[in-house]
Model the fold of this input.
Amino acid sequence: MQVQSAGCFAHIFSRLLFLLIFAPVVSCFDPEAGPTLTIKGSTTVLPVVQIGAEVFMDRNPGVNVSVQGGGSGVGIASLIDRTTRIATSSRDIKAEELERARAAGVYPHETIVVMDGIAVVVNPSNRVDNLATEQIRDIYTGRTSNWQDLGGPDREIVVISRDTSSGTFEAFEKLALEGLKVRPGALVTASNQVVNTTVAQTPGAIGYLGYGYLSHRVKTMMVDGVRPSVETIRSGKYPLARPLYLYTDGKPAGEAKRYIDLLLSEEGQRLVQEQGFIPVR
Amino acid sequence: MRHFRETIYKWIFSVLAFASLLFLTGIILTLFVESYPFFVRHDISESIFGLYWYPTYDPPEFGMLTLITASFVVTLGAMVVCIPIGVGTALFLQELASASQRAVLKPLIEILAGIPSIIFGFFGMIVVAPFLQRLLGIPTGLNAFTASLVLGIMATPTVASLAEDAVSFVPRSFREASLALGANRWQTLTRVVVPAAGSGISTAIILGIGRAVGETMVVLMVAGGAAVIPHSIFDPVRPMTATIAAEMGEAVMGSGHYGALFAIGLILFFITLAINIVAEIISRRFRLKLGLGR
Done:
């Protein structure tokens, strides 16, 4: 009896294993699947293109949309070596990337689909609720290191930054630091989610996030007296805002064009707003 | 016909055996080729002893000393945690535990060894870090201490099971001789068994170090990631592996930053290679000492 049930279990288990290993392979080689549209790049833009992809595949059952993260740099590099149709980026293309693209016979075409605001966040226990851009700069460069100097309690500021190669960092550096270096002692975290968690856990923390990643676990700061919102970011009143880009080789055509048109349509922009981003129209 | 089949099998297995050699060569070549431009353009000692890691600024700075120190500090801390626990577990299992205790402990240690490192990372970030932060009243729980602790727990099963093998290789006659001479169990353990298994235990520890040096996910999530030389064990640090993992995705291919990350990879490769060579030398000595042959 014992042996039999064990054998039965092993049988079910091996079947499950088989399914796990081979199901994705089989679906990849499904001869009935139509053309594939690949989108790759910035993790900041990921929720935007993901929701777009879901709706797009609903409307166009023949087309397979594959969405991947990896980072703005990876997306653009993939566009250059032609392994993706659309590259997403939270920064505009760099001169050296443009050069490499031209050399490879690729002509990146830029489309702005949404705006992103960078929110400065602190622990909910923090009494400070407004910071000037200069104060943020002083905190991040290490000139200010105690909340006392900013009207808060006598507590060391735990500065939380992102990897110097993250798109959110590049935007923050450009918008808030004006090219000055973040002090070496700042905590460096790998994602927006980790910033949320760390700030929520650490009473003296300050961090920054893509607007779409704001959570109720952290307290959002006013910057220069302006609270980040759809209106203030789109109007340019909120100082820490930036556009998000899609790059295609030449003007978008075929599925890529239909996909981008969907994102820019009234419905697409509404979906994007539901993801916490700011529509461009 | 039979001869033909045997030849075929021989070939198939030779190819499979040499495949790993092919991968190794490929990896080493890639590391050298991709980091070569970096070493040509930058002074090696200036990079290795540089204090500032600002790879994406203009002009970029590629000081790796903070990253190398971080790996060193975190690994050392992990060893402080895992050597006593790991070696103690091994001695207990081999010398003192009853059959039923062994039956419970051994599988549990193996399960601990099988837990993916990201789970340790999660555990460290969500549970250990906030707990230590409150307990010790430090500004942040994401620091070298927490990373050492979690890494140490993670490396413990590696050290425990290898050290246990080493202890089990000590011939029964050694123990019997010691007991026959009137030594008690503690004396037998500390003066006979541990010295006899000494180099095997050292190998276990060195391989544990290798595991800790190369670990990426835990330090990425728990060490805090600040590229500074820590003044205390409670400062956040940024080990080499975490730097590569966090930055490779966004580095522009072929740029100085890209090359610098490969250079870190190469340094890491040489460190682990040195660790493995030392482990190999020690374990060979150990086999000879116990008369097990080569």
In short: The two ends of chain B are 37 Å apart (CA to CA).
